[in-house]
From TrEMBL:
Gene Ontology molecular functions: SH3 domain binding
Residue stretches making up the ELMO domain: 307-480
Record key words, sorted: Apoptosis, Phagocytosis, SH3-binding
Protein's name in the database: ELMO3 protein
Lineage: Eukaryota, Metazoa, Chordata, Craniata, Vertebrata
Keyword check for NADP: no
Described function: Involved in cytoskeletal rearrangements required for phagocytosis of apoptotic cells and cell motility. Acts in association with DOCK1 and CRK. Was initially proposed to be required in complex with DOCK1 to activate Rac Rho small GTPases. May enhance the guanine nucleotide exchange factor (GEF) activity of DOCK1.
GO biological process: actin filament organization; apoptotic process; cell motility; phagocytosis
Amino acid sequence: MPPPKDVVKIAIQMVGAIPQLIELQQTKPLASVLKDVCDAWSLPNAERYALQYADGRQTYITESNRRDIKNGSILRLTTSPDQEAERLYIGIQSKNVDVKTDSLKKLASLSQDVTFAQEFISRNGLKQIYSIVEEGNDTGEMLAHTLKAFTELMEHDFVSWENLSTVFIKKIVSYVNMNAVDASIQQLSLSILENMVPTSRLLFELVKKEVTLDRLLTHLQATNAELQLKAMALLIALLLSATDAERRDMMDYLREKNLRQFIHKNIVHSSEPLGDEMAHYLYVLQSVSLNLCEHRMKTSMDPYSQEQRDLLQSLRQTAFESESEVPAVSFSTERRRSLCAKEFRKLGFMNNSNPAEDLRRAPPGLLALDNMVYFSRNTPNAYSRFVLENSSREDKHECPFARSSIQLTLILCEILHIGEPCSETAQAFYPMFFGQDHFFEELFCICIQLVNKTWKEMRATQEDFDKVMQVVREQITRTLSLKPTSLELFKTRVNGLNYSEILKLRQTERLHQEETLAVPVLELREKLKPELLELIRQQRLLHLCEGTLFRKISSRRRQDKLWYCRLSPNHKVLHYGDVEEGVQSPPIESLPEKIPVADMKMLLVGKECPHTKEKSSGKQNKDVLELAFSIVHDMEEYCLNFIAPTRYEFCLWTDGLNVLLGKEMTSERTQTDLDVLLSMELKLRLLDLENISIPDNPPPIPKPPSNLNFCYDFSHAEQ
């Protein structure tokens, strides 16, 4: 008979004693439970003791988290958090170096626990840590433990970062700026500054002033991968906290220092695999860089701006004035105006008398003008060829350069998400971005020539403009999905994906859709669905059995802490626990926490999850909400909260958990997988019917015969 819901069977250990096996009554006060345990071992003063997990993070058991204890958990009787906090508070002030070092080491470990951290901070323990750092007498291992303890204590958000003294901050900065400092101390110092920067404008300005970009670039070039990662994290934090003007200045300086070339050579194309954190930082750096175009994208052309009018005129002059035998200045004003209007029409402007009107639409605004000018100045031969080739045609098949450029700029902005905020979790950067200065402009130069090529392949007229741009968008997105490593490779592949190839792809997709819409085929699909859905269910459960590495993400920053969760082979228990960086697939025995599948009550996703509601005071990130899900267990009182690393993992885990709960799989991935499997199965089943039309209705059943006398009577034959 299963134990009641409010009773869990656990083991309790103590050094030098035989473990106790008890049935923990969850309704019984924790103080009474501790007294019973202490009495069994004849220990006085039960209030001086506490229970904590023996494995994993060794969290203290409190009234608020006791419901997380599972059957089979192993706990340890240890000194209570207040007693331990008092002991370590005294220990870190000791004159004995060994005692002080051991106390700081223990403090760094225990500070991860919120109960202990609260006790230690309430004793003004952070003031002692400030003193150790500010005095600067301790170095090496002792200092590393001090900084680690400080980081963990601040992680609980009991104390504001703005309370830190300038002396303390400058001391942390000095560890970053010094050369003869242990790498572990520099890593911790960089991490502290990274956490500090987003919290206030004052702290951002202080860190930006004290830690120069040159110093961060030095750390980025270090061979120590962890130091490189922390330096990149601080650089990204500074860029995200800066104003638009400051961000532009910082990016200009980094460009002068060849940061892009270094990243392309030593990080993107490094022999070591790229970690998730670094991939995210490269994505943010790419996003920040591209978003520098946002201001021009959202700014309409001012017809009264002489600078902008000069840029516009330079397009006309580059294309036409070199071929004119008589200079335009020798014409009368009226003749010159008429000639300019004619030339702007040849350039492809809709409003040739006032081409500035074409650039009033924002987006793409002035960014389209910048792209056209860049194309004309950096590839003048290609520009002249484009314009003159189309302006000399009289068969209504000319491709309008200006109109195409304006629309293409808008398409590229949408594809590259220019003007959109950075995601907190995305890792999808383009390797070719770091392989090229002026990436956006160079990409435009390739794509505008693609427009002309596709236009000719389609033998398009002005009425076909939107169709051509749709094909060009498809060519670009399909090629970008292949993640080309350089713009040259992108150019080769996108030009190889010509209009006839796009037609073949569309035709294949259309035929596939048409053949699956026949009535008999639809009926066959319905018959195959249950079997294939069962196959998908088994695949989801198999994925849960293999497990996934999750990251803990707070509202302040991306966390370095990892945990792993996997389903037991018999599909009865979910095992989970914290793991170290680099652990790919920990054995199920190393995961101390458990949730019986039978105790799972409900699956929550998105805004319904408690860990997204807790952060509702801050600005919610859409991407995090889309990846969040929670398992409600134990009488709907407790949740295990997840943030999936990718949308793919989110779909597989939510599907798998729904299968365990006996519910339908609801993710978009289920429908995609089902469509793929149905398509494959239908093609195999219909292989022999190729080129044979399938009627919508089955052939009619013939009427029964008027009599059945044609049946042979075997009884007469036997006689």
